[in-house]
Amino acid sequence: MNLTSQVIITENxxxxxxxxxxxxxxxxxxxxxxxxxxxxxxxxxxxxxxxMASEEITVxxxxxxxxxxxxxxxxxxxIEEPPKNKEFIILAQSxxxxxxxxxxxxxxSVLSDVKHEEHxxxxxxxxxxxxVYEFIQTHKRTDAKVxxxxxxxxSKEAMGSGSYDLDEKTLTLFSNAFTxxxxxxxxxxxxxxxxxxxxxxxxx
Length: 204
Known about the structure:
- The protein is an alpha/beta fold and about 200 residues long.
- It folds into 2 domains: about 5-110, P-loop containing nucleotide triphosphate hydrolases (Rossmann fold), CATH 3.40.50; about 125-200, no CATH class.
- About 45% of the residues lie in helices and about 15% in strands.
- The chain has helices spanning about 15-20, 40-50, 70-80, 100-105, 130-140, 145-160, 170-180, 185-200, and strands at about 5-10, 30-35, 35-40, 60-65, 65, 85-90, 110.
- The strands form 2 sheets. A 5-stranded parallel beta sheet has the order 2-4-6-1-7, with helices on both faces. A two-stranded parallel ribbon has the order 3-5.
- The radius of gyration is 18 Å and the shape is elongated.
- The mean pLDDT is about 90.
């Protein structure tokens, strides 16, 4: 771990921020930490802080469970061409929510505090309408909190399987699924939408 611009995927934000702070020498820290979703106004604040003149190195830490595509696109220019002596460290919980445009500009490290979970109960390599229907029926009463974990695992496994043509719209859908669950969309509707979209992107 170092204090250069990067994306860190971690489930333990506080611990990761403490580890970053332990590396601090002459750098100045600016921290914008949100409990759930990083908002557009938070992104505006981060950009303002980045353009404040400073001779010392300023490490801008942006931490939240999710960063919407709108927020990431707003941060893109300042990440792509950071002002002098500015480093951006983004902390998020899921690699699948980070847009390709950000990934292509910042290195991503996944911390090993991500828990090993039991089998998903859905074979994404053999996804079909029948297995989608069965899985949705199994999770008819799953609440939003558990559904977020499910969505994250489905996203990770889909990206790792090589069985899907995942365009930017589909990757954005993964990110939007978290936002939808945060604002109270029915978990089963979110799961249904995600799996049917995946099915449509399955390589033939």
